[in-house]
Write a sequence for this structure.
């Protein structure tokens, strides 16, 4: 993990999660830092999501305030007031404007935010601020995650180092629509605001917006890209500049690594499976087919059982709603094993060959539709006993 | 169960399922009987579905041939030939035209139909034909079902009895699009062909087309309504006639009862939950919201745990894709307990009241959107360990 000059992180235990476990994070940005962000498109977006979006529009954020254990979603008017109160408290303590604080919450939906406990823990988090705080913070934002998720890249431009470091949390209620549960990336580079937003949007699409654990888009998804701007390099203002290309690639790499890690740590997951749909008429139908496979409970239980019950994949393709699908042209592959050819079992397919691929911890389901040149790629995981256990036990 | 004059059923064990378990059914119709049918809209519809549809267009069906244990789906050209061969064999043995035989299959996808075994068992099924064969046949068509599904109604018109009796199978891969896995209804009434089809379509919509277990539309769904026409009553040719109204209601009642029974017997299900969405702008969005709740793995695991974790219901409403949903107007109820009011937790809601409803084996989740007058009603079940066990073990 490379620390990011101009960004410090502090964590504390406010007592929302189990006693002694950190559940509060403050991220402090250098003066003049830029922030780009994408948020959930769930209509019931949480109170902090609405407030963070509003504060972001007013510019010049200095502090991000993140709590885990309570989502402050479905909490109506009280929730909005609570989010504002806690921002005001942090702003007062840190000496900045309330609109310079961006709030984020993740955890149980529908319970009031324990504002008093958060308030009491804020000084501890501020005292803990340090550039090396990423590791501790990445643990503090976890809910049902079994491990922290961090990724980091470093490259040089004209001999000057550039850092892109990120952390994310997420394990269940994962089918991001504009972002993932929570992800924070930061660079020391100065990047012009609209360019920073474009860079984030481009990186989020193939990463956080192409993964699913259970198809349930969260109320609290948010992904933030911070440019602290303390680098000695001149500000990036041109999308065609080599430095932007290098930077955008690093952001994308970090997002991809974090997104993969979220699915790998999907609730109860034992397998990481890439669903690739090729030769579709357009990208939308390619994604429809990929997500139909990736969400099918029957496909996901077959993945868990390492059972090459490919009829379930074929049935999912068939129900994805494609107009006039010529099923005789469909091919389906498990890694390099062709299982369906001309819409039926491939002549030289053997159960043994299918079972060998399915027994791998990571593999690819590839579907070729032979009706165009668009494609899509989605990451998913299996559906295991532990998914049911975790979600039947969580909260109760 | 009322037997239906003009309809006889025979069952046999062909050895596709476990030894000694019936897996072949022949349904014999009186000469001149009419058949209406609806089939799956899965693009990968099974070979027997395509053949039954084609034979039905040629009119005057006399025999339905149903096997369980093998779906003859995803079997390409060979599958189509197998379905035709077995129809030809039955037609020859019974002395009718091949186009008078309608084939149906249900079971594992992607394995070749064991034609020879079916052929050898056909004489046994024919010898077993009797009007009282419904009970045995309803067991023979089962796959992962834990109990047979039968429903029956009898009413009188001018002193003459009219019977509507039906059977169905289905437990997993349940999200019928035009019909359910397999359902067969029969009446002794004579009903004009287009009226019979209209009656079936109207009955299927609120019943088989409004249920889900796992969201996976099957490749083999079919629902058939037989009118044997042996009744002494005159043929029904008028949709406004009282006899049609009574008949249509009986068909709908039988379909509703069978559909409920399929969800109650959903794979691993411990709960039967009705999702009602009211005051939607149109029926499509009402169904979108209802199905988003009914399919959510997080809602379904909360149902299993009897945990009133209503934030998951709220999150599902929010991700259903409704444009400009005014969340402050949304209300959510568990039976008669209001949990969400004005888009947040209802003021007098208590966890205890929610838990009481969730502990019931059958209850209703009701969502009011306050943006129109359309509504929808969908039946679903919970997601339990046994769902994973059944689908991880089935076939392997």
């Amino acid at each position: 993990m490379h620390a990011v000059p101009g960004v410090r992180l502090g964590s504390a235990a406010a007592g929302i999660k189990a006693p002694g476990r950190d559940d509060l994070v403050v991220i402090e940005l250098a003066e003049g830092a830029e922030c780009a962000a994408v948020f959930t498109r769930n209509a019931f977006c949480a109170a902090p999501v609405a407030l963070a979006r509003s504060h972001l529009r007013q510019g010049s954020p200095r502090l991000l305030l993140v709590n885990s254990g309570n989502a402050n979603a479905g909490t109506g008017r009280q929730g909005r007031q609570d989010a504002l109160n806690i921002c005001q408290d942090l702003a007062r303590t840190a000496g900045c404007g309330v609109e310079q604080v961006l709030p984020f919450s993740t955890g149980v939906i529908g319970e009031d935010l324990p504002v008093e406990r958060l308030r009491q823990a804020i000084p501890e988090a501020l005292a803990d601020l340090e550039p090396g705080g990423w590791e501790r913070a990445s643990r503090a934002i976890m809910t049902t995650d079994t491990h922290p998720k961090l990724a980091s890249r470093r490259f040089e431009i004209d001999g000057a180092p550039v850092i892109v470091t990120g952390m994310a949390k997420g394990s269940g209620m994962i089918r991001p629509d504009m972002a993932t549960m929570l992800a924070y990336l930061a660079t020391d580079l100065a990047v012009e605001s609209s360019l920073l937003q474009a860079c984030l949007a481009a990186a989020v699409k193939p990463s956080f917006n192409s993964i699913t654990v259970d198809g349930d888009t969260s109320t609290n998804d948010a992904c933030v890209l911070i440019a602290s701007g303390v680098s000695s390099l001149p500000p990036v203002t041109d999308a065609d500049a080599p430095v932007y290309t290098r930077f955008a690639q690093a952001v994308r790499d970090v997002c991809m690594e974090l997104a993969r890690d979220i699915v790998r740590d999907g609730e109860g997951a034992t397998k990481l499976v890439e669903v690739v749909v090729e030769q579709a008429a357009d990208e939308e139908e390619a994604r429809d087919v990929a997500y139909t496979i990736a969400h099918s409970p029957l496909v996901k239980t077959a993945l868990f059982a390492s059972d090459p019950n490919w009829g379930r994949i074929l049935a999912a393709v068939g129900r994805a709603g494609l107009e006039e699908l010529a099923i005789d042209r469909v091919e389906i592959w498990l890694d390099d094993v062709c299982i369906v050819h001309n819409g039926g079992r491939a002549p030289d397919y053997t159960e043994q060959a299918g079972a060998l691929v399915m027994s791998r911890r990571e593999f690819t389901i590839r579907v070729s539709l032979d009706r165009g040149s668009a494609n899509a790629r989605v990451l998913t995981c299996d559906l295991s006993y532990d998914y049911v256990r975790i979600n039947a036990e969580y909260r109760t």
About this structure: DSSP finds eleven helices and 15 strands in chain B.
